[in-house]
Amino acid sequence: MLLGFILATIFITLSPGPSIIVLLVVSLRQGAVAGVKFSAGVISADAILISLSLLGLGALMQSSVLLFNIVKWAGIAYLIYLGVKQLRASHKVNIEVNETGSSPYMQGLVTTLLNPKAIGFFVAFFPQFIDPTQPFWSQLGLLGPLFLFMVFAMFTVIAFLAARTKLLFESNKGQITLKYGSAFGLIGSGFAAAFVQRA
Questions:
Q1: Considering the entire predicted model, what is its pTM?
Q2: pLDDT tens for each residue of 39-73
Q3: CA dist., res. 189 & res. 82, Å (int)
Q4: Is residue 120 included in any domain, yes or no?
Q5: CA 137 to CA 54: how far, in whole Å?
């Protein structure tokens, strides 16, 4: 069961989504350290959402139409905002200079906290790997930190790999591809989130 949890975490973490897109953009534009800070923001948000799920607030949000829709539409607005911001940004990739604006950590935190699928995911994900014949809290005490560690480790590796691939985006064509690809990816993620329903 633990092996299944590890494999599921790997596949889920590496699946395309807003966090991966923003991580790549931050790492390319601001460098690997900024990418690690973004990853720390994602992990902080994940820890908060896991805690809320354990306290039963995840189930409450899933059952409350108003609360779910508030988080859902705030998340949609934020993803579209990030996409539009990317469209308006210069397509020149320069990781030598740290860009001003919102901190990478806060971007990671907010992007994840406002993901309408996130808390529902944690409510549904962890019970699949809990053995009902074993103590609940001891299992969660292992799976929760393991999940956070794995996500942070994979995001950190991605941040360093992305920063190292800057050469691929030094051509004008590559920089334009990065700009518009990430922008429309974020805006598309926002519109896709509009179709997310409560579990």
A1: 0.69
A2: 999 999 999 988 877 676 555 555 677 766 776 67
A3: 11
A4: yes
A5: 10
